[in-house]
Amino acid sequence: MALRRDLSRSGPSRSRAARESGLHQGSQGLRGEANFPTPGTGQVDHDLLFRTLAGAGFRGPVAVQRVDGTESAEKMPAELIDERIAAARRFLSPILEKYSRG
User: Fold this and answer.
1) Structure pTM?
2) Per-residue model confidence as pLDDT tens digits over 47-76
3) The total number of structural domains that make up the chain
4) Which one, of 49, 43, 45, lies nearest residue 28 by Cα?
């Protein structure tokens, strides 16, 4: 897979691309803090992230793993999780559509 090879190589260009895209920044808080906001409400620049991935030739699936923020997912009502998943889809769909045309 070209993307894995490209993003796993060492050197300044990989570090810069990962740093600028937020690729390794899954949470909003400090390293080790459990704070995973819904996409579009945190610190990750998703447009840059998917532009970088598309530029590297990535055309694979995308998964949103967590939308629980600082709350305990086990204690969240299913309806709230569904709302956050729907919000993530509304936010990400136009971005993904823009970069899937290439």
Assistant:
1) 0.67
2) 999 999 999 999 999 999 889 888 888 899
3) 1
4) 43
